[in-house]
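ugh ok fine here u go
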Amino acid sequence: MPFKIETLQQFYTLMEGTKKAREKCVQQYLQNQSISSELITSLTEALEALEAIPQKEGKYSLLLSKTKTIFLDLSYEIGELKKDLLYLKHSPKTFYEYLSSIHSQFANQVQEGEKVLKGISWGNFITDRDGTINNYCGRYKSSIQSIYNSIFLTSFAQKCADHSVILTSAPLDKGGLVDISINPEQVFIYAGSKGREYLDSKGKRNQLSINKEEKNKLKTLNTMLTNLIAQPQYELFSLIGSGLQFKFGQTTISRQDIYHSIPAEESALFFEKVNNIVNEIDPEKEFFRLEDTGLDIEILLTMKRGERSKAFDKGDGVSFLNQELQLGLEKGPNLICGDTKSDVSMVAASMEKTPNTWGVFVTKDPSLQQEVKKICPQSLFVSEPDVLISILNNLSN
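structure:
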């Protein structure tokens, strides 16, 4: 019988269960074994349980507490389970036809991407996760990687690149990148906190050093933010979008999700609360830089460069990983993938090492396309993460 979901905690428990089942499916698939019928049944029942959650005005209703209800858009969780089951039960042709039916210009973009990138043996494949190689989800904690996604990416990483790096702003673990990934071991280098911390393909962990004074400032900040969201009126901000994430050298707190389920005035007031905390801890702005994406409030430790300071960005992360892991960016060719302005610095870091750099961005934004093209002439643009990973999968075959 499908598991009945009534509370937010039950929802997260169910999604954690799908992660375990999906990991086993990927393992069996890559070992050319038949997928266990028990695993398929488990995923089918998980989908049925999600679809059975009561709805109100298109949102799924779950209990946050005995007296409070939260309404969620579960498009990602339900949609990716449907795609996984379709992928496991039908032929690749049928699966691609489905992707083509839900994504405009899917077939044309995949064909064009193959044409541009065909025949290149990559020294490095470095990519952002969410919105780039993984479809966006309203909650990071439940954005469990899909089976088809893992198989497509693993195939490309094993056959077409010497080093494959997934680099994200999210933490490495404890609710971060590793906890929502289902790829087999020794395939990817996982880099969290914009590259400040990483887990290499052999499971070795390391991080960029932070001095004692910076650590103490971060600890104070994190304690105050934890106390803030412990208050009932602010608890919701820890449960939407990125939630509250303690990264290495950075802290993120959501003030809105991609579905804009929080009233604008309430979101703005919460931003002011967080901003006041940062100003209280760092009135001279020596240690922190605050960035507001409209969805997340990013509080970043600054780094000194000569007489000026700047926030650590993903380009700095790429350079750190290149030095630490001897990726050989200087040799190329390097394939750098992203979807937002924050990913442009990764392309720039690679271009500083070698012009033998290619960029693929998942974006429909003309200004972002122009910015990427200006830095990296060999650039390609697609509209969906499913398009990008399908290109990569086809290149590996």
